[in-house]
Description:
The chain contains three helices and two strands, in the order H-H-H-E-E. With 106 residues, the chain is α+β, with helices and mostly antiparallel strands. The radius of gyration is 20 Å and the shape is extended. The model has no long low-confidence stretch (mean pLDDT 81).
Amino acid sequence: MDMPIMKKKRTVASQAAARGPLPELPEGLLDELVKGPMTPVQVQDLMLAFNKAIIERAMGAEMNMHLGYPPGQPKPDGQANERNGASGKTIITERGPRQGRSAARS
């Protein structure tokens, strides 16, 4: 009797390695974020804050592209949807759910 072939679950690290090298972060940014030695909790908090900021920036860019104009500008003629404040969002990531804020539309 043939045994089923079990596929190994790919780890986050192996998935990242398959995508290629990670982007380089500017030294100035790292100097601003890391002022000296950090505890594991401080490293984790910094990573969570950085992750949240990136997700919020990406969601804002997606909303700009969808609506066709940036925040603070009048909506273009013919655009039915418009910005309507911001609301909380939960994004499911490989590292678990993350809270963020995203522009709302109406």
